[in-house]
Amino acid sequence: ETGVTQTPRHLVMGMTNKKSLKCEQHLGHNAMYWYKQSAKKPLELMFVYSLEERVENNSVPSRFSPECPNSSHLFLHLHTLQPEDSALYLCASSQVEGDYNEQFFGPGTRLTVL
Amino acid sequence: GQNIDQPTEMTATEGAIVQINCTYQTSGFNGLFWYQQHAGEAPTFLSYNVLDGLEEKGRFSSFLSRSKGYSYLLLKELQMKDSASYLCAVLDSNYQLIWGAGTKLIIKP
User: Fold this and answer.
1) Fewer CB near the terminus (10 Å): N or C of chain A?
2) What pairing do the DSSP bridges indicate for beta strands B70-75 and B103-108?
3) How do residues B97-107 score in pLDDT, each as one tens digit?
4) For the residues A92-97, what does the mean pLDDT come to?
5) Which chain A residues are within 8 Å of B98, Cβ to Cβ?
């Protein structure tokens, strides 16, 4: 248990659906992240929120829309996804102080787009 | 471009020692992390190196050479529960983590 929870753990959706992924951190951290993990590929950073402000977008398609209502919660809203978006979506949090940035990960949401 | 290279898969025997290598080319360097990820689970922190040399933590050790852009993770007295993927990540000049694709370690009895 890392102190970062994600729901749902598994999600199957059609290309016309709208769904949201939820992440909650109980560690008092000041930064939260969304990553995409595809098989045999490096973790892809999608979004970063620091002190509830988005600081990184990394050219993610607009069909992914993040929301960070407070420092403990992070959402990823999904709409009109493509089959190639099927992957494991990981949320992470960290306390950014100086140079050190150890990230704590949630268990991920396994997303399948039909 | 930024690049992290590590072997895709390695196999080792229970009780033995294994070394997982990681080479990197990044825009700046502010530290290197190793994470362990069991199948279907979250990555968990193993080690952090920012200075050259060896950091030892129980059965696991991590080594860094900044001049060579090279690190390794050394696992001793291997146990079946060490079967997992091991992810190397570098903190670049913008303090963003650049990730390798991970090394899947298979432990055989």
Assistant:
1) N
2) unpaired
3) 899 999 999 99
4) 89
5) 42
For A71-91, what is the mean pLDDT?
95
Q: Which residues does B68 contact at the CB level (< 8 Å), separation at least 6?
A: B23
For residue B20, the Cα-to-chain-centroid distance in whole angstroms is 6
Residues 6+ apart with CB under 8 A from B33: A102, B45, B46, B47, B48, B88, B89, B90, B91, B97
- pLDDT confidence tier of residue B77, bands split at 50, 70 and 90: very high
CA nearest B97: which of A107, A48, A70?
A48
CB distance A45–B8 less than 8 Å?
no
Q: Phi/psi class of residue B32: alpha, beta or left (left: φ > 0; alpha: ψ in -120 to 50)?
A: beta
Contact: B45, A104; criterion CB under 8 Å: yes
| 46-105 in chain A: CB under 8 A from chain B | 48, 56, 90, 96, 99-105
Structure confidence at residue A86 (pLDDT): 96
Distance of residue A30 Cα from the nearest chain B Cα, in angstroms: 15
More confident residue, A31 or B2: A31
- Tell me, letter by letter, the H, E, C secondary structure of B38-59: CCCCCCEEEEEECCCEEEEECC
Do A102 and B95 lie within an 8 Å CB cutoff? no
Chain A: residue whose CA lies nearest to B104: A40
Residue B74 has pLDDT above 80, yes or no: yes
pLDDT of A1 over the 70 cut: no
